[in-house]
């Protein structure tokens, strides 16, 4: 573009959208075993009484859960639901993070000076919208993570089968179970994360502690902020 150096051209909305989703997928690949362990610990003892559940707990602690799953179900069990997890990140993070700047500009009608109200509104909008789009992938991911391989009797044989089974047995709305609390949670989380980042970045720029203008989660080029 005329008047801009290569490093000065701001990334397009498409680049932000795809960049946020890709980065989230990479993070998910690394941390997925921890997420699976979290789900197993959360659902442990669900069908038992509190006394019996405490006495017969199969998983104890994060490391203990991971080691138990590897020993009884094999290492691949730590990545149960990975396909749905990557689908979730590509749709969820792309909207939640990648569209934040665009939505903020929409609320401020293109003004470069966004107030905290516009930022909060943009954060809650993209957070809620991301859940509305990605909730089916989240449901399938958690169902897979909760499904133990040991002893057979697996309900879902593949990601596509999980979508079909849930829709057939629980209705199409079954894929959106838990949407309301998830929307509320992620609207708040998105406001806390992105708006805080936005405000701190502006404060640092005004104090001349860094140079350049770097929109939230835009493409970073060595030699620039």
TrEMBL record:
Give me the gene this protein comes from.
UCP2
Record flagged with keyword Membrane: yes
Output the Gene3D superfamilies linked to this UniProt entry: Mitochondrial carrier domain (1.50.40.10)
Q: How does it sit in the membrane?
A: Multi-pass membrane protein
Which InterPro entries does UniProt cross-reference here? MCP, MCP_dom_sf, MCP_transmembrane, Mito_Metabolite_Transporter
Any one Gene Ontology BP term:
transmembrane transport
User: What Gene Ontology terms describe where this protein resides (cellular component)?
Assistant: membrane
Enumerate the Solcar repeat regions by residue range: 11-106, 114-203
Keyword annotations from UniProtKB, A to Z: Membrane, Repeat, Transmembrane, Transmembrane helix, Transport
- Matching Pfam families: Mito_carr
Does the keyword S-adenosyl-L-methionine feature in the UniProt annotation? no
What family does the entry list? Belongs to the mitochondrial carrier (TC 2.A.29) family.
> PANTHER family from the entry?
MITOCHONDRIAL DICARBOXYLATE CARRIER-RELATED
Q: Identify this protein by name.
A: Uncoupling protein 2
Where would you find this protein in the cell?
A: Membrane
């Amino acid at each position: 573009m005329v008047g801009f150096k290569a490093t000065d051209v701001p990334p397009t909305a498409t680049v932000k959208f795809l960049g946020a989703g890709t980065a989230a997928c990479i993070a998910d690949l690394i941390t997925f075993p921890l997420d699976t362990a979290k789900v197993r610990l959360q659902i442990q003892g669900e069908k038992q009484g509190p006394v019996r559940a405490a006495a017969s707990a199969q998983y104890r602690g994060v490391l203990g859960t991971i080691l138990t799953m590897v020993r009884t179900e094999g290492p691949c069990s730590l990545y149960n639901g990975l396909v749905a997890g990557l689908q979730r990140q590509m749709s969820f993070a792309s909207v939640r993070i990648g569209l934040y700047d665009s939505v903020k500009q929409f609320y401020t009608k293109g003004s470069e000076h966004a107030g905290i109200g516009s930022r909060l509104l943009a954060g809650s909008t993209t957070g809620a919208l991301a859940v509305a789009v990605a909730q089916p992938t989240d449901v399938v991911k958690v169902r897979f993570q909760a499904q133990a391989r040991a002893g057979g009797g697996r309900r879902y044989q593949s990601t596509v089968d999980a979508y079909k089974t849930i829709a057939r047995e629980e209705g199409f709305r079954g894929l959106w179970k838990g949407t309301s609390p998830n929307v509320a949670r992620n609207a708040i989380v998105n406001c806390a994360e992105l708006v805080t980042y936005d405000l701190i970045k502006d404060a640092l720029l005004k104090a001349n502690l860094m140079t350049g203008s770097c929109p939230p989660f835009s493409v970073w080029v060595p030699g620039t902020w």
